[in-house]
Amino acid sequence: MDKNYNYGKAGKDLNVDLLNHPEYIEQNATLAFQVAIWRWMMPIKKHQPSAHDVFLGTWTPTNNDTLAQRVFGFGTTMNVLYGDLVCGHGDNESMNNIISHYLYYLDLMGVGREEVGPQEKF
After folding, report:
1. What is the pLDDT of residues 55-65, one digit of tens each?
2. What is the residue range of 58's domain?
3. Helices (H) and strands (E) in the chain — how many of each?
4. How many CA atoms lie within 13 A of 122 on its CB side?
């Protein structure tokens, strides 16, 4: 997780003071798993879908989303999870690493590649 608002929201929903004690996530495997599932399932920002909804295809992109090239697929899922850190910053080593791993596993499983081009962060 990143940003205080993530720790605050997750802590509130999970009834744990993560804002003042983020180390609890490192110290408790059950809590770490709960936080990971929470992050996957919960939209963080207003007008932003959850990564889960994008992944399943239950999210309906708005006109603005389409104009910002946010459509179904891996790119938008990563945008939801990491957009503040990597989207709109040009060539980014962290995102390039994520993309490389993703493409490696697609090839390993024999799954076709999709276009994950540039898009605006949420």
Report:
1. 899 999 999 99
2. 45-122
3. 7, 0
4. 23
